[in-house]
Amino acid sequence: MTKCVNQPGYYKCELDKAKLSGLVIGSTTGMLFVIASIWKSYKLFKKKKNKELRKKFFKRNGGLLLQQQLHSSDGSIQKTKVFSSKELEKATDRFNEDRILGQGGQ
């Protein structure tokens, strides 16, 4: 990285700018790759964790029974409307406590 030349009475040292810039670019690229890899691993871990939580909540909240009823060809079971979380959030004014049935509201 440095080149030193022995002059009469002193040393003259100069940086090799090409090697230094290559080192800086290589180090920066390597660090960016490591950071991107860590970020991607974190996102994949979080996605997997959320998928497991959704399955857990689906089972806990009677999701299997609901799914069977929805796909049943039995005529005695009424068609059930399943609302998305966005529809519920909109209908309840972001799950406002004043919108709970039987507890006031409009």
Notes on the structure:
The protein is mainly α and 106 residues long. It contains 3 helices and 2 strands. It has a two-stranded antiparallel ribbon. A hairpin with a 2-residue loop joins strand 1 and strand 2. The protein is rod-shaped. The chain starts with a strand and ends in a 15-residue tail after the last helix.
Quick rundown:
The chain is mainly alpha-helical and 106 residues long.
What keyword list fits this structure?
mainly alpha; two-stranded antiparallel sheet; 57% helix; rod-shaped
Contiguous uncertain segments of 5+ residues: none
Overall mean pLDDT stands at 82
Largest sheet: 2 strands, antiparallel
**Physical arrangement of strands within the biggest beta sheet:** 1-2
Radius of gyration: 32 Å
Strand content: 5-15%
Task: Annotate the secondary structure layout.
Blueprint: E1 2-7, E2 10-15, H1 17-60, H2 63-71, H3 85-91
Antiparallel strand pairs: 1-2
